[in-house]
Structures are given as C-alpha cells and as structure tokens.
C-alpha cells in the first residue's frame, strides 16, 4: 500500500515519486490554492504540500482535507522535494524534505478523538488516557518506551542465547502454593473445587529444570500476584528468570554483570564498569538505612553507640549539611510527617529533628526534645557533632531503633531519601540521572521475612544467607540465591527451621523428591523487566513501559477487564457467587 | 565448580588436568584395580577410568562408586587421555578421549530412580514419565526437543527484529469474550462475581496496537482454552503472533515465507523454496478432501458429477491403486470403521468401498452395494473408471455428500489420509519425512463456522473471505486474515451478518471505538509454535516439545496441578463451591 515509510524519506529521495500511508495531522488551509498538512506513521513525519497548480480536482481534495479530523488515515501520492533551507530545521532527517502531493485518498476517517495525544500540554489525566489506550499509545514517549522494551528483551535474549542459555517456557496454569503471596486462582472443570493458580514466579519449575539437567536456563516470564495494589504495582508483571547448575554465587553475578553491560551498551550506548560493588546488608542498612540504597549521593547515616546506654537500641544520626537554612520550617513539613508515620508504625522507637543554630552545636538541646534515651547523653551527641564538624545551619536527625530487628528501610533511611529528593528539587544536590551505580547487596540475615522479593519466593520466610540483590540507584532490579539442592537439608529447613505443617510440606513433595533424584548444586536470579525498562527509558511509572497496563484499581480501563461472570459461566466450574469479596 | 563441560572435551584437551561435574551412569567394577563409569552433563558424556595405581585411597573411592545409583551427582578431577583407537567409536567428539580419574566427590546422592531415562527400551508409560518429569526430561530426545524449541524461538525473534517488528507483551489477565471457545476465568476481589479471563489469543490487543500505530507487531504469546481436551491438545499453548499495518495479503504471506525459510535454514539447514503454492479451499477440499491436505503424495479424489442426477449432491471417487491386493480384507477394517463413523456423523450421505476384481471394472457392481443415488448410474461409474485406467486389484471408494456444506474434512479425505498411512506402513507408499510441502489455503467460504482456528477467533463465526491458512504436510501451522479496519463495516458485520445481541456487541465496544479513531488497514497471522517445533523435531506428540505439559486429563501429574482450593481461598473472592462441575 506504500512505497516508503514517512520515517525513511530523506534528501536522497528528492525527485522520486512515492506513495505514503499514515495519520493526517496539523491540517492548515493556507489559501485558496494551498493546503499544508503533516503525515505521520510509526517511523516519522512528512510535511505535505497540496497545491492547486499540481493536484487535479484541487477544490475537492481541499474540501476533503478540511473535513478530516486529527489522526484520520490517509494515503498520498506525490513527489519528494527539498525544503527551503530556512525551514529545514529539527532533528529528524525527514525535516529536510517535503512532499508535493498529487492525490490524497482517505483510508479510514476518524471520529473526533477524546484527546489529542500529540499535544503534551493538554493531555488529560491518566485514567482518561488508560481508557483510550489505543490513542495514548500514539504518544511519542509511549511509542519509544514500547520499542525500547522490545529492543531490551531482544538484547537480553541475544546475550543469553550467545552464552549457552536455553529459553524454556514454563506453565502459567500452575497450582496454589501455601505460604506465598496471594495467588490468582483459575477454577477448572476437572473436579470439585479444583483450581489452577497463576505462578508468582517460575521458581519451582526452574529448579526442576536444573534437576532435569538443563544446566543453563532462562526465560522472560509472565508472573502474577493478587496483592492489594500499590501505586506502582501490576497484578501481572514480567521477569527475566535465570538459573544455572554447578555454579557459585560469583559465577551468577558474573553472568548478570555481563548481561547488564550488554543491555546498557545496546540500548544506552553506555559502558558499565564491572565488577559491581558488593555491599553487605548490614552496611547498606546502617549507612544508608535501606537494603536498596541510592549511592549516587552521600548523606550517610552514622551509628553513634555512645548516645545510648541501652544495649537493645541502635542510636543513629543523619546530618543534612546546611539543611536548616535551605528549607523553611514550612518546607520541612514532609520530613516531619514522615517521622510521625514512622512513630505510628513503630519502625523506630523515637526519631527527632533538630536545627543546629548560630550558637553552634551547643544549641541542639534547646531546639526540640531529643530522642528519649539520648536525653541524658547530650554531651555525647555534642562530641559526635564536633567530630564530624557539624556546623550552624545543618539539619540533624537523631533516631533510636531496636537492635533486634533489621528492617529493609529504617526511618533515617527514608528521611535520607526524601531529604535528597527535596534538595535535588531545590538544586542543592546533584543526583545525576546518567550515573548508574550498580550494587550487589549480600549477606542478608538468615531466615528473615521477605517483603519484596523479585525472585518469587516459594516461602515468605526463606533461608536468605546465600541471597543477593542487584540494586541500581535506589531501585531493586532483582535478586537471587544459591538454592538448597539436597533433599536432607531441604527437609530439615521445611520441618525444623520453618516448621511447616505436614500438609504444607506435602505440597512441596515434588520439589523434595526431585532434589533426591540427583539434582545438581544450582542457583539463579530474577530481574524485573518492567523496572529495568522504566530505568532505561527514564519513565516514572511502570505503566509507561507496559502496552496495556492495569490501573491502580487492577482494572483494564480500556478493555474493561475484569467483567462480571454470569452464573452460567461459574456453574460450568461448579462454583457460585457467595457474597461480595471482602474489601481490599 | 568445573573447568570444562563433558561435551566440550576433545583430543585437543589430551594431557590436561580438568574438573568435571555431572551425573554418574553405567558404573562397572571391572576388577579389584579398575572401575569404569560414565559422566554425563548437559553437553555430553565422558568415560571415566578409576585405576588403583592412580587414585589415592582407591579402595574407598571404589566402595563409594559401587554404592552410587544411576544419576547420582559427582564431581571428578583427572587427566584427559586419548582412548585406544579401537574404542574411539561413536559420533561424539568426546568418544575420542577418556578421563583418568584422580578423585571423585559426591555432590548429591540419588535415591533409586523410578525408571532409567537412558534405556529407551524400558521406558514406562507416558503417565508415569509425566509424573516424574524431572527424570523424563533427562532423556536425550526431550533434551534435544527443548533445546530446538529455544533455538527456534530465537530464530523467529531474530528474524522479526531484523525485519522491524516490535515485540510487544499483551495481558494474560483479559476479559471473557462472548461467543468464543470456553475461557478460563480468574476470579478477582474487585467486585461481585468479577472475573478476568485468560485470552484465547492476543487478537483484540494486536488490532488495538495497529490502531495505536505500531505498524509491525509480533509476540510469542501464551494462549489458553478451556476445551475438552483431545489427545494432543493443551489447555495452554504458544503462538507466534504477527500483525502488520498498510499491507495486502501478499505482503503478510511474503513475510511468513521468509520467516519459514529462515527457521528451516537455521534449525534444519534446509533451503525452502518460495513462494509457497497457493490453493483454494475449494480445490483442497475437492481434490484432497481436507482444508489442510498433505500434498506429498497423490491419491487425489475425483469429482464425478455424472454419477448423480441429484443437484444437491456431490459425487466423488477415490481410487487406491492395487489397494485390494495390498490389504487383506481384515486389514481393511480401519477403513470400514472410518466409513461407519462418517455415516453416523452424517458427514457424508453415503460412502461405499469396493474392490475391482479380475473381471475388470465390470465387477464393480457385484462387490458391495453402491452409494444410493449412484446405483442407477453404474454405467457412468464404469465409464469414469475406464477413463482413469482403473485396474483389477484397485480399491475404490465412492461417496456422496451434500452440495451445501463444505466441511473442512470430507469422508474421502479422511479415507485418503488413513489409506496413505496404511500404505506407508506396508512400504507401498513413500511419504518423505524430509519433504516440506508448504501450502497457502485461500478463498475460504464466507461466514463459515470456524472449528480449528489457530489465529484465535474473537467470534466463532467470522468473516473468512480474506482468510489464509499455512499448511505443511497435512498439518495446519497457522492462519490469518486481512481484518476489517473501518467502524461501519465492523458494525454491519456484528449487527447484520452475525446478528449479535446488543449486549454482546457492547462487549466489543472498545474494538469498534478504536476502529473509529483512525485505525489503519491491517492484517496478520498466527503460527502454532508447539506444532512447528513438533515438526522440526519429528515429534509425534506436542507433549514432547513442551517442558511441563499437562496430561490429556488437563492435569500436571508432576506438580499436581490443579489442586483443591480451600473454602477460605474461595471466600477471598466471594465465591463458594456449589457442586461438582458437570462431567466433561
């Protein structure tokens, strides 16, 4: 239907007669003898000149163009000409040429669009755009994001294939796994109340593939969790899933580092240095108050044990240099509320904020109440502040938390992140978007409860000693571990460590059996593809890198999913509606 | 954990000290001073020699090896040596070398396996093997199949990427579509009886991507159908899904032909000639009695209109040369039962089988009753048989079917396929496995009911005038069509042709709306990846090209999916078990 795409036309086509197809936009009737328009396709935009002197039946074609709404589909024939030099601006090669139109044909008229996706300033709210996703996806940002996603997946697959990994599809119709996150159920007609469940990850399947001798497995796998949706969570998401036999942690990390290097080179044209920095969980949480620290900036937290005599308490200090001068008291409000929430959540025992005033560090005790147990140790705090050369105008956070819980995020860690964001917004802190600070977080505490595990835990409480997370600029890209590969150890962990009931242990019977049939030592990792692409495209929301995302409510506002099932449909599966589901 | 894989070792490694890991097999204690064993990994097998003169603590290592069961995991250190020339047989490069073992370490003991996957003759039935899939997958056939599948997917992706197609993931959590095949429902907690449904294909999403301007889309997509399972159907399957804008049927067929060429070159090292042969639906069903004919052999069906005076009847003849001599009367039984079943199904009005005896074609009337309406036309039949030079000993099938229904398979078509298989088994017909007879079947009747459509119909009754199927050696590899792209036509088809209820039409509202917002002319195709890989690997069953298939019952016999959901789990979704689902 076309001889060229709009995007490919350039000066080398000048003089050629071509046929193009695409969406009409910016139609302007300049005079009785001239109409300007733009023709857009997936590859670029071409300026169209419809001149009376050239076009037979000009009056009719002019009338036709006048009636077209934005994004009507047209086909045009014409001759490529060079644009006048003073108009050949812009970064697209097609800006250097334009098309002298011979004829215009309407391929599909368009009703008035609910919004114009090409005018960024006038875009409606996200829900309106999600409800008309076919139009929103015409935006150049989303076009780019989805194409970068495709290229990223291809780069990953190419690397994995080149490195001897076998791409193996694992089932989506799986079974419910006790103790995991809530899973979507899929009723069947097989038997009374029998359901498949959608997998949270291919974790069990990939371990079985190791037992089956596949040695190097990967898959870009769809995964599912029926969680209460947070702002940036999707009920279905995609992960790059990798597992290897006969390997150490270092072997897996090496593959991942080279994979990341390959992706960044292919997609960003940026060289990433390897090996990545290793940091223990203890260092990350004490120095940055987070198990996924953004290390592109300092603002490190200091442990000051002399502030407390309570053996059960960790006393910490965060200093924001000059913070009390940069922010007005009003501007400090977000930090104050963060502290308030952390007290309600009992994340910290007590956290307080202070300004160091003109009298120097001696002023500290006067500003506000100090954290409870530190009260008696003001002199120790003063000594500390002197030792770090704290100055008048600095902002000071002092916090106490329990020695016995090591949360993935401490209150000071959250304050550090928020304060950094506020400083950046004020132009007082440089957090370079083009710096990629990859980190391995290692040495996780044994048997902690997992709250946000990309690697699809089969159990929420899991042995994490051999675990590692890959972190980039404060974002957890993925995580993995060296797995338990022998039957006895696995049984011991299930029974004695995790104290699973016999019934729950039974449901993992196939795993234990497979380990007992000659399963090699193995380990792996999983990366969140959605997050990875969001970083590569600089997208604030995962919804901007997914072609058809669900809204925060879990609904597809465009296709109208989910939809009520009829009693007859449910009866096919031997189930019926009982009552409204409990409120989320 | 290893310096090399078993598969990569060759004569160039002779003299080197290496460390290997893998599964022990064929352990044989040859004498007090020598133990033979084989070490297998994902890449090959190496012969191990454990000699007293070399191994420190030989007695202990010998005892250890004696206690190992098949497929115990071991690591060995040793020196690569050349095998004696008279033993260096076999097609693997590793056969030329063996390993003089210095030490053996057990990495994971194995319980006795329920069956030995390496002894083909002793394999248990498929259900036993499916129940121990981690062991069955160690078989070299399945290892090869799964690896070929990975390479095939990679070849497809590489070709599509090279040709400017964008790989776009579409949702698995979709909504139920009226009038399609039965879909799996996924209850949600969003509202009373609200369910997602698993998609039968990405059909609607890919059309929306065309409306969104993606121009060239592809995806290797998981699809789902809750059908009563036939022997070789899976509730989840994978299709290569392709859609293009601004194209004709020929453009799509050209891309597909080049894709097929690329796959066959990459995977089979075979050059496929293009363009593929085109055949109309009418020719396929009349000449081969099938809309997916195997054209590697003749045995064509002849229409003989003079056999009947009934305008509403098609009279057809199939001759199997020498068939009455090749097969005994007992051996003809499968053909007789096929005829009987076709009569019960009313597929044909009447079909009869005859032998042409020594008296020549004149004997025909005596053998058995002729099909009813032909009875009065025996002389016309004789004339026909003379015209095709039918001879004594030929087997003859005469059939009548309604003029007004054109089934995808006629009775004579089924008889042709079965007779060909029987002739092949007797060595009387050559159907070369290495001949790839690709065909486009086109010009489908308008508005027929679709029964087996790879391309994921949104409606079972669909406009099929612009439809095309890709057929290979009697197998439907896929199908597609040029879609309706303008709103008015789509509405007309929904309302006036298909006579959908307003309620059903509403559920397609987003599709109609999107067509009205400037949707380009577009079309596409979908290929069944499972079938494609089955052909490439010469596998008889789709289950042999899927890592974790469901048994014919729909169950995963290994992971034990589906499993009963608890009342508490169902209550989360506001549903409860009503009664056992109706029998399938």
Automatic annotation (TrEMBL), chains A, B:
Family matches, as CDD domains: EcAspRS_like_N
Domain Aminoacyl-transfer RNA synthetases class-II family profile: 146-549
Keywords, ordered alphabetically: Aminoacyl-tRNA synthetase, ATP-binding, Ligase, Nucleotide-binding, Protein biosynthesis
Tagged with keyword Ligase: yes
KW ATP-binding (keyword) present: yes
Entry's Gene Ontology cellular component terms: mitochondrion
InterPro entries listed in its UniProt record: Aa-tRNA-synt_II, aa-tRNA-synth_II, aa-tRNA-synth_II/BPL/LPL, Asp-tRNA-ligase_1, Asp-tRNA-ligase_1_N, Asp/Asn-tRNA-synth_IIb, GAD-like_sf, NA-bd_OB-fold
Pfam family, one: tRNA-synt_2
Biological processes annotated in GO: aspartyl-tRNA aminoacylation
The EC number(s) this enzyme carries: 6.1.1.12
Stored PANTHER family: ASPARTATE--TRNA LIGASE, MITOCHONDRIAL, ASPARTYL/LYSYL-TRNA SYNTHETASE
The family this protein is said to belong to: Belongs to the class-II aminoacyl-tRNA synthetase family. Type 1 subfamily.
Name this protein carries in UniProt: Aspartate--tRNA ligase msd1
